[in-house]
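Project outcomes to date are best conveyed with an example. Our students and postdoctoral researchers have been running inverse folding experiments weekly, and each run begins with a structure described purely in tokens. The record below, which covers 149 residues, was selected by the lab manager from last quarter's runs and is presented without edits.
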């Protein structure tokens, strides 16, 4: 009987988690707003200013790099503005946006970029997972994780 109970509990958990991921109305209408915020962030990462970046990322930002480093809002902005992290170009493809509820969206995409980090030219190819949250009427990046392709 323990195996049967395990399967019943697992099935119930799967059903509950599936229901929790369903959008609660308005999901499709928020997608263009989230896409626009993601595009503004792409542009701000190429031509960074503290003001532009600060308006697009949450105060509690957790920005995970493919190499394992995790930035806060302050370190993320400082590295871009100071040129330690320097994106010359960023191309986004295969983007999907799932609005989970009125205030949360999951954005996935492939990122290809030319970089010049601390004056050293390079290229990156990444898969990105971003969690966006609506705060004060604006969509802000709350969390991001990258993995190398």
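After processing, the design step wrote out the following sequence:
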């Amino acid at each position: 009987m323990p195996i049967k109970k395990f399967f019943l509990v697992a099935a119930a958990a799967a059903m509950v988690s599936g229901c929790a991921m369903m959008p609660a109305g308005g999901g499709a209408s928020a997608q263009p707003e989230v896409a626009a915020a993601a595009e503004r962030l792409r542009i701000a990462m190429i031509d960074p200013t503290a003001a532009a970046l600060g308006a697009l990322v949450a105060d509690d930002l957790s920005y995970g790099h493919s190499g394992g480093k995790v930035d806060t809002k302050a370190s993320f902005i400082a590295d871009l503005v100071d040129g330690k992290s320097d994106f010359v170009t960023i191309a986004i493809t295969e983007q999907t946006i799932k609005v989970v509820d009125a205030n949360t969206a999951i954005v996935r995409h492939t990122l290809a970029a030319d970089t010049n980090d601390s004056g050293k030219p390079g290229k990156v190819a990444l898969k990105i997972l971003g969690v966006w949250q609506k705060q004060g009427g604006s969509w802000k990046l709350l969390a991001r994780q990258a993995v190398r392709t």
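The CA atoms of residues 85 and 117 lie 5 Å apart. Confidence is low (pLDDT under 50) at residues 3-25. The training component of this project remains on track.
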